[in-house]
Protein backbone atom coordinates (compact mmCIF):
# COMPACT_ATOMS: atom_id res chain seq x y z
CA UNK A 1 0.00 0.00 0.00
CA UNK A 2 1.18 3.53 -0.82
CA UNK A 3 2.83 5.40 2.06
CA UNK A 4 0.05 7.55 3.56
CA UNK A 5 -0.94 8.57 7.07
CA UNK A 6 -3.07 5.89 8.74
CA UNK A 7 -5.12 8.56 10.57
CA UNK A 8 -5.77 11.46 8.17
CA UNK A 9 -5.01 9.55 4.93
CA UNK A 10 -2.82 12.43 3.81
CA UNK A 11 0.56 12.28 2.07
CA UNK A 12 3.35 14.30 3.67
CA UNK A 13 7.07 14.26 4.29
CA UNK A 14 8.50 12.72 7.43
CA UNK A 15 6.01 9.87 7.86
CA UNK A 16 6.69 7.84 11.02
CA UNK A 17 6.27 4.09 11.46
CA UNK A 18 3.64 3.70 14.22
CA UNK A 19 5.15 0.44 15.49
CA UNK A 20 8.77 1.59 15.69
CA UNK A 21 8.37 5.16 16.96
CA UNK A 22 8.62 5.02 20.76
CA UNK A 23 8.74 7.65 23.46
CA UNK A 24 10.60 7.53 26.77
CA UNK A 25 7.60 5.68 28.17
CA UNK A 26 8.29 2.82 25.70
CA UNK A 27 4.72 3.08 24.40
CA UNK A 28 4.44 3.00 20.60
CA UNK A 29 2.18 5.29 18.58
CA UNK A 30 0.22 2.17 17.59
CA UNK A 31 -0.47 1.35 21.24
CA UNK A 32 -1.53 4.96 21.89
CA UNK A 33 -4.01 4.88 18.98
CA UNK A 34 -5.36 1.51 20.13
CA UNK A 35 -5.88 2.63 23.72
CA UNK A 36 -7.46 5.97 22.76
CA UNK A 37 -9.81 4.68 20.03
CA UNK A 38 -10.50 1.07 21.00
CA UNK A 39 -9.59 -0.11 17.47
CA UNK A 40 -7.23 -3.06 17.00
CA UNK A 41 -3.90 -1.85 15.56
CA UNK A 42 -1.67 -4.73 14.50
CA UNK A 43 1.46 -4.99 12.38
CA UNK A 44 0.60 -6.56 9.01
CA UNK A 45 -3.15 -5.82 9.25
CA UNK A 46 -3.12 -4.44 5.65
CA UNK A 47 -3.66 -0.86 6.84
CA UNK A 48 -1.02 1.88 6.56
CA UNK A 49 1.73 1.52 9.18
CA UNK A 50 2.80 5.15 9.02
CA UNK A 51 1.52 8.39 10.50
CA UNK A 52 2.23 12.02 9.67
CA UNK A 53 3.99 14.27 12.24
CA UNK A 54 0.82 16.29 12.94
CA UNK A 55 -1.32 13.21 13.66
CA UNK A 56 1.55 11.72 15.68
CA UNK A 57 1.50 14.78 17.96
CA UNK A 58 -2.30 14.54 18.23
CA UNK A 59 -2.00 10.86 19.24
CA UNK A 60 0.56 11.69 21.94
CA UNK A 61 -1.63 14.49 23.32
CA UNK A 62 -4.72 12.26 23.32
CA UNK A 63 -2.81 9.49 25.09
CA UNK A 64 -1.47 11.96 27.66
CA UNK A 65 -4.99 13.33 28.26
CA UNK A 66 -6.33 9.79 28.69
CA UNK A 67 -3.67 9.02 31.31
CA UNK A 68 -4.39 12.29 33.14
CA UNK A 69 -8.13 11.55 33.15
CA UNK A 70 -7.51 8.04 34.48
CA UNK A 71 -5.37 9.39 37.34
CA UNK A 72 -7.92 12.07 38.28
CA UNK A 73 -10.76 9.53 38.03
CA UNK A 74 -8.91 7.23 40.44
CA UNK A 75 -8.44 10.17 42.81
CA UNK A 76 -12.14 11.14 42.71
CA UNK A 77 -13.20 7.51 43.22
CA UNK A 78 -10.95 7.32 46.26
CA UNK A 79 -12.43 10.57 47.62
CA UNK A 80 -15.87 9.01 47.17
CA UNK A 81 -14.96 5.65 48.73
CA UNK A 82 -12.44 6.60 51.42
CA UNK A 83 -12.72 10.35 51.97
CA UNK A 84 -10.61 13.36 51.06
CA UNK A 85 -8.03 12.79 53.83
CA UNK A 86 -6.99 9.33 52.62
CA UNK A 87 -7.11 10.38 48.96
CA UNK A 88 -4.93 13.41 49.67
CA UNK A 89 -2.35 11.34 51.56
CA UNK A 90 -2.21 8.85 48.68
CA UNK A 91 -1.77 11.69 46.18
CA UNK A 92 1.13 13.14 48.17
CA UNK A 93 2.76 9.72 48.46
CA UNK A 94 2.43 9.14 44.69
CA UNK A 95 4.14 12.50 44.17
CA UNK A 96 7.01 11.40 46.40
CA UNK A 97 7.15 8.09 44.48
CA UNK A 98 7.60 9.97 41.18
CA UNK A 99 10.40 12.09 42.65
CA UNK A 100 12.17 8.94 43.85
CA UNK A 101 11.94 7.28 40.42
CA UNK A 102 13.29 10.43 38.70
CA UNK A 103 16.21 10.83 41.10
CA UNK A 104 18.80 11.04 38.29
CA UNK A 105 16.89 13.90 36.69
CA UNK A 106 16.92 15.85 39.95
CA UNK A 107 20.70 16.00 39.93
CA UNK A 108 21.04 17.23 36.32
CA UNK A 109 21.50 20.98 35.76
CA UNK A 110 18.68 23.19 34.50
CA UNK A 111 19.46 24.92 31.20
CA UNK A 112 18.01 28.15 29.86
CA UNK A 113 16.63 26.23 26.88
CA UNK A 114 14.30 24.28 29.17
CA UNK A 115 12.73 27.41 30.64
CA UNK A 116 9.78 29.25 29.06
CA UNK A 117 10.06 32.85 30.21
CA UNK A 118 8.13 36.05 29.70
CA UNK A 119 4.57 37.31 29.81
CA UNK A 120 4.81 38.34 26.14
CA UNK A 121 5.22 34.79 24.92
CA UNK A 122 1.78 33.98 23.48
CA UNK A 123 2.59 30.28 23.20
CA UNK A 124 3.40 29.79 26.89
CA UNK A 125 -0.04 28.45 27.77
CA UNK A 126 0.01 25.84 25.02
CA UNK A 127 3.64 24.79 25.35
CA UNK A 128 4.26 24.85 29.10
CA UNK A 129 2.54 21.91 30.76
CA UNK A 130 4.69 21.88 33.95
CA UNK A 131 4.46 24.88 36.26
CA UNK A 132 6.55 25.49 39.39
CA UNK A 133 4.46 25.54 42.56
CA UNK A 134 6.88 27.86 44.39
CA UNK A 135 7.45 30.50 41.68
CA UNK A 136 5.97 31.47 38.31
CA UNK A 137 8.34 29.53 36.01
CA UNK A 138 6.97 27.04 33.50
CA UNK A 139 8.66 24.19 31.61
CA UNK A 140 8.08 22.18 28.48
CA UNK A 141 9.16 18.82 29.94
CA UNK A 142 8.74 17.03 33.24
CA UNK A 143 12.50 16.45 33.52
CA UNK A 144 13.28 20.18 33.28
CA UNK A 145 10.51 20.93 35.78
CA UNK A 146 11.90 18.38 38.26
CA UNK A 147 15.41 19.83 37.92
CA UNK A 148 14.07 23.33 38.56
CA UNK A 149 12.03 22.23 41.59
CA UNK A 150 15.26 20.85 43.04
CA UNK A 151 16.62 24.42 43.20
CA UNK A 152 13.96 25.34 45.77
CA UNK A 153 14.95 22.58 48.18
CA UNK A 154 18.52 23.37 49.30
CA UNK A 155 18.35 20.39 51.63
CA UNK A 156 15.30 21.78 53.45
CA UNK A 157 12.11 19.98 54.36
CA UNK A 158 8.77 21.29 55.53
CA UNK A 159 7.51 19.56 58.72
CA UNK A 160 3.83 19.47 59.69
CA UNK A 161 3.19 21.21 63.03
CA UNK A 162 0.30 18.85 63.82
CA UNK A 163 1.94 15.46 63.14
CA UNK A 164 5.34 13.90 62.39
CA UNK A 165 5.12 14.09 58.58
CA UNK A 166 7.71 15.95 56.50
CA UNK A 167 7.29 17.25 52.95
CA UNK A 168 9.69 18.29 50.20
CA UNK A 169 7.66 21.35 49.19
CA UNK A 170 5.71 24.05 50.98
CA UNK A 171 2.81 23.55 48.59
CA UNK A 172 2.37 19.89 49.53
CA UNK A 173 2.61 20.78 53.23
CA UNK A 174 -0.22 23.30 52.80
CA UNK A 175 -2.39 20.70 51.09
CA UNK A 176 -1.68 18.19 53.88
CA UNK A 177 -2.53 20.68 56.66
CA UNK A 178 -6.07 20.95 55.29
CA UNK A 179 -6.68 17.42 56.55
CA UNK A 180 -5.93 18.61 60.12
CA UNK A 181 -8.13 21.71 59.94
CA UNK A 182 -11.31 19.93 58.87
CA UNK A 183 -14.12 19.32 61.37
CA UNK A 184 -14.47 15.66 62.32
CA UNK A 185 -18.11 14.92 63.18
CA UNK A 186 -18.05 11.19 62.31
CA UNK A 187 -17.11 9.19 65.42
CA UNK A 188 -16.06 5.55 65.53
CA UNK A 189 -18.35 3.37 67.65
CA UNK A 190 -15.43 1.05 68.52
CA UNK A 191 -12.83 3.61 69.69
CA UNK A 192 -12.36 7.35 70.33
CA UNK A 193 -11.28 8.37 66.81
CA UNK A 194 -13.32 10.79 64.67
CA UNK A 195 -13.16 11.73 60.97
CA UNK A 196 -14.07 14.54 58.58
CA UNK A 197 -15.73 12.22 56.06
CA UNK A 198 -18.20 9.40 56.61
CA UNK A 199 -16.40 7.34 53.96
CA UNK A 200 -13.12 7.69 55.93
CA UNK A 201 -14.95 6.43 59.02
CA UNK A 202 -16.20 3.41 57.05
CA UNK A 203 -12.64 2.55 56.00
CA UNK A 204 -11.44 2.94 59.59
CA UNK A 205 -14.22 0.72 61.01
CA UNK A 206 -12.96 -2.12 58.83
CA UNK A 207 -9.85 -2.21 61.06
CA UNK A 208 -12.19 -3.25 63.87
CA UNK A 209 -14.46 -5.64 61.95
CA UNK A 210 -11.73 -7.29 59.90
CA UNK A 211 -13.56 -6.61 56.60
CA UNK A 212 -11.11 -6.47 53.64
CA UNK A 213 -13.15 -5.86 50.46
CA UNK A 214 -10.32 -4.96 48.05
CA UNK A 215 -8.86 -8.13 46.50
CA UNK A 216 -5.66 -8.49 44.50
CA UNK A 217 -6.30 -10.04 41.08
CA UNK A 218 -2.81 -11.60 41.04
CA UNK A 219 -2.74 -13.29 44.47
CA UNK A 220 -5.00 -14.11 47.42
CA UNK A 221 -4.28 -10.97 49.47
CA UNK A 222 -7.09 -8.62 50.49
CA UNK A 223 -7.02 -5.05 51.81
CA UNK A 224 -9.08 -2.58 53.80
CA UNK A 225 -8.54 0.33 51.39
CA UNK A 226 -8.17 0.63 47.64
CA UNK A 227 -4.98 2.68 48.14
CA UNK A 228 -3.41 -0.22 50.05
CA UNK A 229 -4.27 -2.53 47.15
CA UNK A 230 -2.66 -0.09 44.67
CA UNK A 231 0.57 -0.07 46.71
CA UNK A 232 0.51 -3.86 46.97
CA UNK A 233 0.14 -4.28 43.19
CA UNK A 234 3.54 -2.59 42.81
CA UNK A 235 5.13 -5.63 44.47
CA UNK A 236 3.97 -7.83 41.58
CA UNK A 237 5.71 -5.50 39.14
CA UNK A 238 8.92 -5.59 41.19
CA UNK A 239 8.82 -1.82 41.81
CA UNK A 240 10.76 -1.08 45.01
CA UNK A 241 12.28 2.42 44.62
CA UNK A 242 13.17 3.11 48.27
CA UNK A 243 16.66 1.69 48.94
CA UNK A 244 18.38 1.24 52.30
CA UNK A 245 21.82 2.87 52.43
CA UNK A 246 23.00 0.40 55.12
CA UNK A 247 22.09 -2.90 53.43
CA UNK A 248 20.70 -4.26 50.17
CA UNK A 249 17.00 -4.16 51.15
CA UNK A 250 14.50 -2.18 49.08
CA UNK A 251 10.94 -1.11 49.82
CA UNK A 252 7.75 -0.12 48.01
CA UNK A 253 6.92 2.69 50.46
CA UNK A 254 9.03 5.43 52.02
CA UNK A 255 7.80 4.93 55.57
CA UNK A 256 8.65 1.19 55.37
CA UNK A 257 12.24 2.23 54.65
CA UNK A 258 12.19 4.70 57.56
CA UNK A 259 10.94 1.96 59.90
CA UNK A 260 13.59 -0.45 58.61
CA UNK A 261 16.45 2.03 59.17
CA UNK A 262 15.76 1.84 62.92
CA UNK A 263 16.90 -1.80 62.83
CA UNK A 264 20.35 -0.46 61.91
CA UNK A 265 20.42 2.50 64.30
CA UNK A 266 18.71 0.81 67.27
CA UNK A 267 16.50 3.88 67.66
CA UNK A 268 13.29 3.30 69.66
CA UNK A 269 11.56 6.68 69.59
CA UNK A 270 8.10 5.60 70.76
CA UNK A 271 7.93 5.70 74.59
CA UNK A 272 5.05 4.29 76.63
CA UNK A 273 3.65 6.98 78.95
CA UNK A 274 2.65 4.40 81.58
CA UNK A 275 5.83 2.31 81.85
CA UNK A 276 9.48 2.38 80.78
CA UNK A 277 9.10 0.37 77.57
CA UNK A 278 10.10 1.88 74.21
CA UNK A 279 9.40 0.73 70.67
CA UNK A 280 10.88 1.13 67.20
CA UNK A 281 7.44 1.22 65.56
CA UNK A 282 4.46 3.39 66.49
CA UNK A 283 2.09 0.48 65.80
CA UNK A 284 3.88 -1.66 68.41
CA UNK A 285 3.46 1.12 70.99
CA UNK A 286 -0.27 1.38 70.19
CA UNK A 287 -0.70 -2.37 70.68
CA UNK A 288 1.29 -2.25 73.93
CA UNK A 289 -0.77 0.64 75.38
CA UNK A 290 -3.89 -1.55 75.11
CA UNK A 291 -2.35 -3.83 77.76
CA UNK A 292 -2.60 -0.90 80.19
CA UNK A 293 -6.01 0.35 79.05
CA UNK A 294 -7.68 -3.01 78.54
CA UNK A 295 -9.00 -1.76 75.19
CA UNK A 296 -10.00 -4.52 72.75
CA UNK A 297 -11.08 -2.67 69.60
CA UNK A 298 -11.02 -5.57 67.13
CA UNK A 299 -14.45 -7.19 67.23
CA UNK A 300 -15.18 -10.57 65.65
CA UNK A 301 -18.05 -10.28 63.15
CA UNK A 302 -19.18 -13.87 63.86
CA UNK A 303 -19.28 -13.93 67.67
CA UNK A 304 -19.08 -11.55 70.65
CA UNK A 305 -15.32 -11.85 71.25
CA UNK A 306 -12.98 -8.85 70.81
CA UNK A 307 -9.19 -8.56 70.73
CA UNK A 308 -6.36 -6.12 71.32
CA UNK A 309 -4.64 -6.63 67.95
CA UNK A 310 -5.77 -7.23 64.39
CA UNK A 311 -3.42 -10.23 64.16
CA UNK A 312 -5.11 -11.92 67.13
CA UNK A 313 -8.53 -11.30 65.60
CA UNK A 314 -7.39 -12.77 62.28
CA UNK A 315 -6.11 -15.89 64.05
CA UNK A 316 -9.32 -16.19 66.06
CA UNK A 317 -11.47 -16.06 62.92
CA UNK A 318 -9.92 -19.37 61.85
CA UNK A 319 -12.02 -20.96 64.61
CA UNK A 320 -15.15 -20.13 62.59
CA UNK A 321 -13.66 -21.61 59.42
CA UNK A 322 -13.86 -25.27 58.43
CA UNK A 323 -10.33 -25.18 57.04
CA UNK A 324 -7.65 -27.02 59.06
CA UNK A 325 -4.47 -25.81 57.40
CA UNK A 326 -2.00 -26.44 60.27
CA UNK A 327 -0.86 -30.08 59.91
CA UNK A 328 1.15 -32.01 62.46
CA UNK A 329 4.52 -33.21 61.05
CA UNK A 330 4.47 -36.27 63.36
CA UNK A 331 0.95 -37.65 62.79
CA UNK A 332 -2.18 -37.17 60.66
CA UNK A 333 -3.79 -34.56 62.94
CA UNK A 334 -4.57 -31.08 61.59
CA UNK A 335 -5.75 -27.91 63.30
CA UNK A 336 -7.41 -24.57 62.58
CA UNK A 337 -4.90 -22.49 64.56
CA UNK A 338 -1.12 -22.53 64.80
CA UNK A 339 -1.13 -22.34 68.61
CA UNK A 340 -3.44 -25.38 68.84
CA UNK A 341 -0.95 -27.31 66.70
CA UNK A 342 1.90 -26.17 68.97
CA UNK A 343 0.01 -27.31 72.07
CA UNK A 344 -0.70 -30.69 70.42
CA UNK A 345 2.99 -31.25 69.59
CA UNK A 346 4.05 -30.44 73.19
CA UNK A 347 1.45 -32.76 74.73
CA UNK A 348 1.64 -35.72 72.33
CA UNK A 349 5.05 -35.77 70.72
CA UNK A 350 7.53 -34.36 73.29
UniProtKB/TrEMBL annotation:
Residues 3-79 form the ZAD domain. Gene3D superfamilies: 3.40.1800.20, Classic Zinc Finger. Keywords: Metal-binding, Repeat, Zinc, Zinc-finger. Residues 130-157, 158-185, 186-213, 214-241, 242-269, 270-297, 298-325, 326-350 form the C2H2-type domain. The keyword Repeat applies. Zn(2+) binds at residues 5, 8, 52, 55. The keyword Zinc applies. InterPro entries: GLI_C2H2-zinc-finger (IPR050329), Znf_AD (IPR012934), Znf_C2H2_sf (IPR036236), Znf_C2H2_type (IPR013087). This is Uncharacterized protein.
